[in-house]
Structure formats: C-alpha cells, structure tokens
C-alpha cells in the first residue's frame, strides 16, 4: 500500500461512527491488499455468552450465524477465550468443532487456510475477533507486515472504543425495555388490584379506577370530594397503593382531633412543650416521610392550623411544638372532605390559597344513588368478606332481597350499605340466603328510630348547653346502633367509623351494656 492509500484508510477508520462502518472499511482494504478470499469480524455480546457478527466482506452480516462461546473447538471461540491467534492451515480438516462454525463455513467461499486474530481492548481483554480466509502464504505475509500490524493496532483501539459505546447503548435499550415491561406489568397488577379493592361494574366505577391509577403515578396533592360514606378514605389508600412511594400511609381525621392538640399530633412536640407532654413525639408528618399523609375532613381544620399547613406544603419543612429547629419530611398529600370548600371559603372558614394548594389534582366520588348498578356487587363483596372473616357460609341474597337493595337510595352511601349487609348477615343462619324481610326489618327499625329522633331533636334543641346536647346525641346514636347490631361492639365501632376502644370507653361511661337488652 502506498502512503496515500494508508492515509485514506486511516481517515476512513477514524471517521467511522459505528463498528460496522469501521470493520467494513478495514476488512475490505485488507482483503484487497494481499489478496484474501474473505474476512469477517465478530464481537463479544454484552452478556459475554456468545460472539455476534459485525461485518463481512463476502456476504450480508445478517446471514452470519451467532457463535456460542461454549463451542470450545471453534477457532473463533478459541481465539476469543485464549486471547491468542488461531491459525488453521487446512480448514477442511476441521470436523465436529461446533454447529455455529459449521454454519459459518457453509457461508464462506472455499479457501484452504484460516487465521483468527483476537481484538483486544485497552484493558487487554478480548472484545472481538477477526477471521481471515485465504492461502497460508497470503495469511503469513499479512501477519509479517509491519504496516498492517500498525493498522491492526489502530483498528483494535477504535474497535474497543466503538464497542464500549455500542455496549452502553445496548445496555440503555435493555434497561429501558425492562423498565417498560415492569411498568406494564405493574400497571396490569395495579389495575387488577383496584378492580378487586374498588368494587363496581358501572361506568363511574371504571372511570374512578382509571383516575386512581393516573393519580398514583403523580406526585401532586390530591383533593377527594364526596358525600359522607362514599369511600373517600378507601380511595386515598388505593391511590397510595398505586403510587411508587415506599413509605407508610398515614391517615389523620382533622375533625376528630381537638383543636388545641392538632398541631402537636401533626408536627410532634418536644418534652415539656405543653402540659402532659412527658416525652418527645415525632408527629404524623414525620411518620409520613417517604409515603402519603392523608388529611381526612380537611374542611374542619382550624384556620390557624391551615396557615401552618400551607407553609409546610410549600417548603416541605415543619417545626415540632416547643422545638427551635425545623425538620424536613418528604410526603405526598391527599386530602378529603364532604364539605363544599368554595362555600367554606366564602364564609371565611377556609383559606383560598390552601384550597388551591391541596387541589392540584381532584377526584370526586359520586354517591351510591348515582351508580345503583354497583349496589349488588358491593353487597356481595361485603358478604364474602363477612363469610371469610367469620368462617361462615351465608349463601348470598334472595332474588327479592337483591332487587330490594337495588331500589334503595342509601343516603349514607357505601358505609350505610355495608352496615346493613353486616347486620343482616348476623341475623341469617349459615347456609341460608339473606331475605328481603330481614333487610326491611333493619331499615324499619331505623325509620322508627328516626321518628323517635324527631322528638329527641326537639329535646336536644331545648338544652342550653352545647356539650350536653352533643353527648346526648352521641349516646342516642351509639345505643341505637348497638341495638341494630345485636350488641356487637366491633361492628358498631366499624359502622360508626370510630376505634373500638373509643366505643368501649363510651359504653362504660354511659353504662350502655347493663341498661340495654339485646335480642
């Protein structure tokens, strides 16, 4: 080769943008210069388990076979594993060296000798091999040429660099493919879970499940609205479950915490920060780090606390009661309310700027009366849970009972339906179906209680003390629910949405167990 040809080849190799272009120009010039019958190049796969074709002077690269690195007798595999050249003076004498080599030999033109040269990377590990076919004399002449050994060194260096780039790109493609597959599998899994956790066959139920999946992928604050008993707390938990956040789901009922204690409950306190603070407390905001903080009944949060919460949401920092230093918590906020917040804003009871901050995303749960086609599925789901929890077999609902349920408006929504089904199940013998008469008897008891409640309401209105009126109302409601559920405290507490220990305390305080007779 003259100096111009050498310079042209060196420039072509330097300008090559991938392994194919680099190997194609190098091998083509090599075959023409000596001359040789053919030449091809292979590189090690990213998984280091086989040799992958890169380029060939005689046929298309796609026609070349993959070579398994377990074919130890294969000359190309031998050169790759040993990092030494492999010279075969008579190719026809190679028998049973591997299916890959046999397939490769069929695609080559007839040539007596084979030389396989390992291509080493900068770290001296083998990144590929070059296989040259020709006469033994031409192959020996090429190996003894100082010029071609310099060109081979340049080719090896460029091959290593472009190979690393190709490996990086392949790795990114593989990781992207795996990530997309995992995301698809996760989405399918979450969709199935939501279908079993948020019950309903209506278009509204399907839309809510789809929206919860989308909300789970977001990090923005969510406001869930809907009537009492529509399942806002359950929807918040499902959104958390659909999110990638690995921290806990921390629910807080803003209406159930006394006004003077809500700040300490949320942000924690130091020892001695207030009367009764005998030890330091972390607070629910700290507990929700890495997870979701769910503020139920956000509309009942005191105005003073709303400003503090807004600052925490904006800065992700808070200060425990009595502390001098601020702390950080990375949480996702979900809020819920049954109250119309725009009206509360007009009344001066809720901050408009906080409303904008918590309503970055919005989910509305329609009342059960707007999706009556879901009543049957919900009732069946509650009954299945009851059977599973109690080891019983209540055989569903009679046709008349199912029809009757579908005609009810359920102003208490899913919570009311759940309480009714649980009460009816406790009054039904195992192996039997729930009868319409059982359901009607339970609701007629409520109607009787409602008529009695009208008189009771008048009595409540006549009381001068608001705390006395509230306590009287609570006692009436608890005693009536205990009667409906045959004295079952666990079911009563569940239906009222209060902890069992709270109910036990109220029963002891009002002596309900000894004063009431249950059927």
Explain how this protein is built.
The protein has helices at 3-15, 19-33, 75-82, 99-107, 136-143, 146-197, 203-217, 232-241, 262-267, 284-287, 303-315, 341-346, 352-358, 375-390, 399-406, 413-426, 436-462, 466-484, 489-496, 500-510, 512-515; strands spanning 38-44, 50-56, 67-68, 86-88, 113-120, 126-134, 222-226, 249-253, 292-296, 317-318, 327-328, 332-337, 361-365. With 519 residues, it is of the alpha/beta class. The protein has a 6-stranded antiparallel β-sheet. It comes from Dyella kyungheensis. Keywords: ATP-binding, DNA-binding, Nucleotide-binding, Transcription, Transcription regulation. Residues 198-426 form the Sigma-54 factor interaction domain.
List keywords for this structure.
elongated, 6-stranded antiparallel beta sheet, single chain, Helicase, Ruva Protein, domain 3, 13 strands, Sigma_54_int_dom_ATP-bd_2, 519 residues, Rossmann fold, 21 helices, alpha/beta, transcription regulation
Question: Architecture of the largest domain, according to CATH?
Answer: 2-Layer Sandwich
Given as residue ranges, the uncertain stretches (5+ residues, pLDDT < 50) are 448-452
| N- to C-terminal distance | 109 Å
Strand content: 5-15%
Helix content: 40-55%
With strands numbered from the N-terminus, the spatial order across the biggest sheet is: 3-2-1-6-5-4
Overall geometry comes to elongated
CATH topology of the largest domain: Beta-Lactamase
Mean pLDDT: 86
- Rg, Å, rounded: 38 Å
Count of DSSP-assigned helices: 21
CATH superfamily of the largest domain: GAF domain
Total tally of structural domains:
4
Main sheet: strands, sense, barrel: 6 strands, antiparallel
InterPro entries: AAA+_ATPase, AAA_lid_NorR, GAF-like_dom_sf, Homeodomain-like_sf, HTH_Fis, P-loop_NTPase, Sigma_54_int, Sigma_54_int_dom_ATP-bd_2
Domain Sigma-54 factor interaction: 198-426
Protein name: Sigma-54-dependent Fis family transcriptional regulator
Keywords: ATP-binding, DNA-binding, Nucleotide-binding, Transcription, Transcription regulation
